[in-house]
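Example complex used in Figure S2.
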Amino acid sequence: MSRRIILAAVLAVSAGLCGQAIAQEKSIVVSSTTSTTDSGLFNHLLPIFKAKTGIEAKVVSQGTGQALDTGRRGDADVVFVHAKGQEEKFVAEGAGVKRFPVMYNDFVLIGPKSDPARVKGSKDIVGALKAIKGKSAAFISRGDKSGTHSAELNLWKQAGIDIAADKGPWYKEIGQGMGAALNTASASNSYVLSDRATWLHFKNRGELDIVVEGDNKLFNQYGVILVNPEKHKHVKKDLGQAFIDWLISPEGQKAIANYKINGQSLFFPNATAQGV
Amino acid sequence: MSEGANAFDLIFSGEAKLYSIVALSLYVSVCAVALAAFVGFPLGAFLALSRFPGRSVLVVTMNAFMGLPPVVVGLVVFLLLSRSGPLGHWGILFTPRAMIIAQALLVLPIIVALSRQTIEDLWEEYRDELNAMRVGPVRCVVTLLWDGRFSLMTTLLAGFGRASAEVGTVILVGGNIDGFTRTMTTAIALETSKGDLPLAMGLGVVLITIVLAINAMAWGVRRVGELRAG
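Predicted assembly (506 residues):
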């Protein structure tokens, strides 16, 4: 019987231990996009921010659409994403306080070295998409309402192609993050639109390479928004705003510019003093 | 994690990050199994010994729920714990606690269903004896649980296997936050998405090795226990 008592005691103590609160420190939850995490930017920025302010930023990385929804539900204090239209809607409907532009990078069209659509070296993304559609060359779409997916749909529209109606078996929507889309393209030698940062950090390239870059239409702006504390009382307004203020400060902007892979900058700071 | 690093370098160079990921994985899964066992064993024993209308429905449901899709459990827990959900004021979404709750829900049906079967079989064996001794229902349950402890340990291991192997719930309710809610399985998912397949594979080997070691330990404990119990 005594052994049973010991067993019960062990169970009770372990249950108690498991229920204990993890030490609370100054922390905020940031919902951001897969590109900022997969590219390694946050691993570079967050330790600098923490050393300066003592605030721990916990990053949940999702597609832009999902990241904004996380903010809408009040499950994050700050959103850091890249789809201006969706961000402005987020602020307009009162879910966020104010949008601050932080930095930009650009999208690149990735494709197999065999280049079945003959677009390599072009600076014309719209022409390249027309050629891909014309040849029915394999194309991987994120299909997840992310910032990159929004940008891709926008580019098809600019090419005069109604992709929802005109897509064939060559156009595959995988509904996953940037890394997964690149893995899929790598395994099937398909074209895919990627942000440059994730591409530079991506290791499983196989036969893939950049085929189109440098078109102004491929500009990719990132913005940061505080979730509206009037809608969600628990939002850590001061800590969240401190994160935003640091990102757009000269020091934060410099930290962003300093993040390089093989000597190449991944993101270019372009904060303006005033939010929009 | 730097370029060209692989999981083995990480282990042997004593990379603190890997240890903390492993520790979190074990912490979450062990707590989830303990929580599920705390509720599941008494519930399984109760189901085994009692007869009431609707009992078979409950038994079949528990058996079926052993195969609950993790992503659905994750979604339900996510919606409950979200700030806009009914339990949002707890403020535990994207924390290890949320992951423990979600995994415990996944493991609970396994513990209930398997322990019910074990206890029911033991009951067939001991019923006359226990009835003759006029043992009360609570003592009955305790005695049967204790006598079935070696089989029930396998039940715990099955639960632990389910908890430590799954990725669908913890990535949804934990958010895969670096240094806070990143487990072995979510780290593997992340490295795969970064295209660092060798590192992902290496982490997979580490995970499988740990699960093997735990099962070997449990087997050892059981052997020693059986020898002592005669």
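The longest strand of chain A covers residues 96-112. The longest helix of chain A spans residues 2-19.
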